[in-house]
Amino acid sequence: MKFIHTADWHLGKLVHGVYMTENQREALNQFIEIVAEEKPDAVVIAGDLYDRSVPPTDAVDLLDEILFKINVELSTPVVAIAGNHDSAERLSFGSSWYKHSQFYLSGKLTKSFKPVQVNGVNFYLVPFAEPGVVRQLLEDDSIHSHQDAMKALIGKMEEHLNPNEPNVLVGHAFVLGGQTSDSERVLSVGGSGCVGAELFEPFSYTALGHLHSPDAIKHDKVKYSGSLLKYSFSEAKQNKSISIIEMDEKGNFSHRYRSLNPTHDMRELEGHLEELLDPFFYEKQRLHDYLKITLLDEGALLDPINKLRQVYPNVLHLERKIDITDMKKKQSFNITRNEKKSELDLFEQFYTEMTTSEFSSDKKEVMADVIEKVLREEAVK
Amino acid sequence: MKFIHTADWHLGKLVHGVYMTENQREALNQFIEIVAEEKPDAVVIAGDLYDRSVPPTDAVDLLDEILFKINVELSTPVVAIAGNHDSAERLSFGSSWYKHSQFYLSGKLTKSFKPVQVNGVNFYLVPFAEPGVVRQLLEDDSIHSHQDAMKALIGKMEEHLNPNEPNVLVGHAFVLGGQTSDSERVLSVGGSGCVGAELFEPFSYTALGHLHSPDAIKHDKVKYSGSLLKYSFSEAKQNKSISIIEMDEKGNFSHRYRSLNPTHDMRELEGHLEELLDPFFYEKQRLHDYLKITLLDEGALLDPINKLRQVYPNVLHLERKIDITDMKKKQSFNITRNEKKSELDLFEQFYTEMTTSEFSSDKKEVMADVIEKVLREEAVK
Asked: Between chain A and chain B, how many beta carbons pairs sit less than 8 Å apart?
């Protein structure tokens, strides 16, 4: 049995004021090509189909269109859950009608802990729910954290689970553990939101969503697929992919990645303005990528964002490595009329005001020469 | 062929700050009983399923539950369109999956002008759309009003319409015409939002939504079903019902109404506070109805809303027939220390300040007597 594991589509996402919908449409069309080619027995989507509980209407249209293509046109069973960004209720609407074409969409957590069976594999669906919701649903006052909640839910599932069958949990949670985990990491993340990977031991494979990197956890059987696309510059260096799992009737599986190739990558670029605007440099660049540019120039620059956008139309964020002013550290640039300062003193004050670098003795020498020259010419007039 | 015509459910409606959802659930459960009893070949819902484009999640849950019961559990085909209160895109999500169980939900207007066929009847679905949307869809710049838009759409439908078959249009519009229409009425409503009933001539029956009274139009073949419930006090005296239509293969039909009986009616009540709080009066009342109460009392009343709510818990709106003060018409109630006014003059000033009625000579006489008595007693002390 072969299935594709994906998650965190975040349809309707807005990044630095730019809607990603057209990019998402392109990526999902590539996804559909992969589905057509791989012919999996199921597509598993582990939550955050939308970016927010009330997504823009074109994102609603897009999800409808893509799921219809996969499920109905390509006759591929779909197993999907709501993530923390989705509205459980709004996503659930109509889901009872979808089942006849093997589209199993679990928006709201319910008391049914029975799996959905697709081609011999049992899929246990755990849509995102706050600990308080699980506490109420299970009438168990001991549930306070996500760890408690997941443990209790898995406990319910284990009552009927046959360990000799292939069992897959589909969840949306912040899971820690496995090879890379150490106690510092758990502590630094802050306990109550996290779920330990050891809880998923009863399952042959755990298909997770929530963290956007497929490398977020190194574990044999508990895996994130990663998000569909890069959704922030902190993800610029992450790999984005979908996972292809082939599982036998014992639950043993092989796992491989396939990548999507978006027209617009999301990248960080660093350099001096002049260099970035130099054709020798930029002709080698993918100019239409979404960019965060960090300028290394000192001193004031005239309208750098518009100059950059003439070459790189999708600059989403511009930063200066050296802050032009840091008013708190410095005295303000005030000259009273009574003060008599030399031109060099005045320039030094101005320089330190406007840059963060030192007005070194080399610089002082150059400037003193310039001032002397100018004053001499003034005197000649 | 028998079908039920209903419209304007407005799920998630808020009336004077009170959510109608539980009332709507009760009414829809009665509706389901009628469906179970009548066993129609289709249920037609002519728009405004929700009250707004992003309805509260419990309204989403309710609609999902009710439609599933009608369509899947009672195996009844459903034909529904979006109204002006619905979001065409949000309502459309998933509708492609519904068709296999003969649930035809048309959220967005499309270029397909073919009818949905249910049990030998052709249903032409016209979801609500602004004239601009229709202009763009049909690429017809002459479309400016709802009248133009409906005329153009029906023109497209007529290209394929077989007048010897039973044809039903399902629409959501402000339709005028028929027996009660006269030019004043059309003028007073203001032209561009309205659609003339004569446009629907090609259809055996036109099932409309938008206006909340089933009597909004008197026409043999073009009818409103009216809303599910009363949704404002201006509807307090309207009949609320659903329409049962039985149609033969020529399109001839019989039409009758069935009523729902909500626990909470919406009514207006008028009287003096004392009378309304008198058990002799209120014991004959349905105390839990949603009420607009108009008090006829003159003068100041101490906390009337809370007194009334102890008897009538669902007072939604309280009005006074006589405004306590109308500051613009009267001089303000100022007494300067230098002024010497008689007690009677002072009382007259106070009385006219606090009521809108005249301080008649009868009243003056009574008051003069009282003042004289009091002053005499004061003098004796």
From this structure: 65
Task: Please check whether residues A50 and A153 belong to one and the same domain.
Answer: yes
Do B310 and B192 belong together in one domain?
A: no
Same domain, A6 and A133: yes
pLDDT at residue B342, as a whole number = 81
> Does the ipTM exceed 0.85?
no
* Residues linked to residue B117 through DSSP beta bridges, in sequence order: B122
Helix (H) or strand (E) holding B222: strand B222-224
* Closest residue by Cα to residue A309 from A14, A18, A27, A19: A18
Number of domains in chain B: 3
In a mutagenesis test of the B interface, which of A52, A75, A96, A109 is the best target, namely the one with the most B β-carbons within 10 Å?
A96
Q: Could you tell me the residue range of the domain that residue B346 belongs to?
A: 327-381
Contact residues, B window 34-63, toward A, CB-based 8 Å cutoff: 54, 57-58, 60-61, 63
Choose the final residue of a domain: B320, B337, B363. Answer: B320
Which residues from B are below 8 Å from A72, CB to CB?
96-97
User: Is residue B183 over pLDDT 70?
Assistant: no
A67 and A157 co-located in one domain: yes
Domain boundary (A236, A259, A282) is at A259
The pLDDT tens digits for B351-364 are 877 776 778 888 88
Give A-chain residues touching B93 at CB under 8 angstroms. Answer: 60, 63-64, 93-94
Dump pLDDT digits (tens) for B299-325: 888 899 999 999 999 999 999 886 545
Nearest to A94 among B57, B64, B89 (CB): B64
A223: in domain = yes
Mean pLDDT of A48-53: 95
Cα separation, B167 vs B171, whole angstroms? 13
Tokens of B156: 């497209």
Place of tokens 């459903």: B78
Q: What's the CA gap between B37 and A348, in Å, rounded?
A: 93
